Structures are given as C-alpha cells and as structure tokens.
Amino acid sequence: MTKKLKIRKIDAAVSDAAEVAAALDNAGIGFEKIETVNWDEFPYRPEVKFRIAHTGDAILINYRCSEEAVRAVAAGDNGAVWEDSCVEFFASFDGKHYYNIECNCLGTILCAVGADRNERTMADKTVLEGVKRYSSLTGKMPSDGKGPVDWEVSLIVPATTYFGAGISDFTGRKATANFYKCGDKLPTPHFLSWNPIATASPDFHRPEFFAPIEFE
Predict the structure, then answer these.
(1) Global confidence as pTM
(2) Quick one: which of 4, 57, 62, 2 has its CA closest to 29?
C-alpha cells in the first residue's frame, strides 16, 4: 500500500541544524519509520526513523538510527556516501525530475537532480554549503566502527537546494518522495525504504515507487 505524508509548516526560526530536533520536539512532529525490507537477500533491518517539517523556505529533517556498525569514509560532499551509513530523501516536484539528498552519519552529503539514475546533475559547492547539517557522531566515531551504535543527523534544506525547480516557498506544494537507509559497504549491507519498492534488486532511483507528500 502506498503511503502518504503531510509535512507540517512550523513557525520556528532555526538557523543551526543542531536546533532542528528541539524545534521538531516543540512542534510535536512525530516520527515515520524506514523499515521496509524489499529484497530478501538483504534482510538486515537496523532501527531507522525520521521526522520532517518545513518553515516555508526550508525543510527540516531529523533522522535517528541504531545499527550494528557504522561507516563514514566518503572523502567529501558528492562522494560515495551511499557506501557509508547513509540516510536519503528523494523527491520530485514536477513528476519528471527528482532530487536525491543523501547524508552519511557524519553529515557528509550528496545532492543531484535528473530524470533517472544515469542522467544526474550534481549540485555545486554553493548549493551544498547551503544545506546545514548536524551529526551526533561528529568527533566521536567508534574507532573500529562496531556497535551497536545509535546516531542521528539533522538537516536544514533550504529551497535553493532544489536548484532549477524555481521553488522559493514550500507552502502548499505537492510532490512525491521516498526515504531510505542504506550502507552498501557496511559489514551487513542493507537497503531499507519508507515506501515499498517492487524491483528485482536494490534500486532507490525508481520514482514510480515514490509516495505522495504534501506541504502544509
């Protein structure tokens, strides 16, 4: 069954990503789970949840994870963050192109847009620097990566992140989206989604399996 999500608009002046969780707490924003195992050969299901709201000109996202091991070796933004302990938010505002915002457990991100997985335009440095991040693991990653490890990341995603979409205010907008948790090179690779994906092998770049979202 396809899910639906209403993204509430909150009146909060949040300028630091470390303040996102408290702002969502104060607004009473609840969590959604990322728990769908779509491929039997990858049964591991770490505990993952997210909550999301918007302020008009920015999206606020808070992810919380608990997993048996963590990895964060991507060299920098727009690197191979999906190989690390990674959470992702894919969204389409026009039904033709979709944006992928992927973030590893230290807050290193990848952002791109395109019609499919092969034709992607990567965000430039200015766009990437506009996304503010907080990680609970900054400066205290386990040396061997072994856990269990509980971690969270928060993002402030301004409208400018969706370069080329002509968005300045999310208020009242409708879109489609999916949320993911993966770790391609972790000791136990896994590929979880919020909305189910019906493909033969792991593939997050499938907008036909995005679910409706609506910004209040």
Answers:
(1) 0.96
(2) 62
Residue 178's closest CA among 191, 169, 188?
Answer: 191
Indicate if the alpha-carbon torsion angle 51, 194, 173, 113 is positive or negative: positive
- Alpha helices by DSSP H, listed for the chain, are 20-27, 125-130
- What three-state secondary structure class fits 105? coil
* Dihedral (Cα; 9, 11, 17, 23), 10-degree rounding: -90
Give the three-state DSSP class for 19. helix
What are the pLDDT digits (tens) for 130-177? 999 999 998 777 766 777 899 999 999 999 999 999 999 999 999 999
Q: Whole-angstrom Cα distance, residue 104 to residue 167? A: 26
Q: How far is CA 84 from the centre of its chain?
A: 13
Does residue 108 contact residue 138 with C-beta atoms inside 8 Å? no
**For 136, left (φ over 0), alpha (ψ -120 to 50), or beta?**
alpha
CA atoms within 13 A on the CB side of 117: 7
Q: Which domain holds residue 159?
A: 5-215
